[in-house]
Write a structure and sequence with these properties.
Layout: E1 5-9, E2 16-21, E3 25-32, E4 56-62, E5 69-78, E6 81-88, E7 92-96, H1 100-111, H2 121-125, H3 130-136
Antiparallel strand pairs: 1-2, 2-3, 3-4, 4-5, 5-6, 6-7
Length: 137
């Protein structure tokens, strides 16, 4: 993860979280937060191995000025498999049952198709947020 990161929030009393790191800020609004599935069914992200929650929904805002992006990310387990959704614009959506990373790649192919860099899937879904992980336990 980033060398410097900070969560500014009063979560769970308020749903808004500002996550700051050296070069980027992410604004989150937790729309729905449930629990992790039972240990026998829990899935993890690759890399940093974050637990993937069920029935989770978050609005994420990142970028500056005219490059600002707003998406709604959602995770639902169906038959013990997490399905990842990212909604953007009025009725646009990408989804994947492969991984949170695959969903993020699909999103970037649509919203910023000619760029080589992309937002981390962990940051897009807010899976790194300690205050949310603590509240789920």
């Amino acid at each position: 993860m980033a060398k410097y990161s900070q969560e500014i929030t009063n979560y769970p009393q308020e749903p808004n979280i500002l996550y700051k790191e050296e070069k980027h800020n992410f604004h989150y609004t937790i729309l729905q937060e449930k629990v992790y599935p039972p240990d026998s069914n829990i899935k993890y992200t690759s890399g940093y191995r974050y637990k993937i929650p069920d029935k989770y929904e978050v609005q994420t805002i990142w970028g500056k000025d005219e490059n600002q992006k707003i998406v709604k990310c959602k995770i639902d387990y169906i038959n013990n498999i997490p399905i990842f959704y990212v909604c953007f614009g009025f009725e646009n959506q990408v989804k994947s049952d492969k991984s949170v990373s695959n969903t993020t790649t699909l999103l970037h192919e649509v919203i910023i198709p000619n760029k080589t860099s992309q937002t981390s899937e962990i940051f897009l879904f807010g899976l790194q947020l300690c205050c949310v992980m603590r509240n789920r336990k």
